[in-house]
Amino acid sequence: RKALGSGPYVVDSFEFGKHITFRRNPDYWGRELPVNAGKYNFGRIVV
Length: 47
Description:
By secondary structure, the protein is mainly β. The chain is built from no helices and three strands.
């Protein structure tokens, strides 16, 4: 199943209790908004 969302990042992979990896959402609707200038520059985030 795919998770729903429209934010700047989407879940790429996870291992329960260990890590979650987010990747940049290529379909993010707010990328060009002036308020977002300089934000969301990472292609991948691992937490």
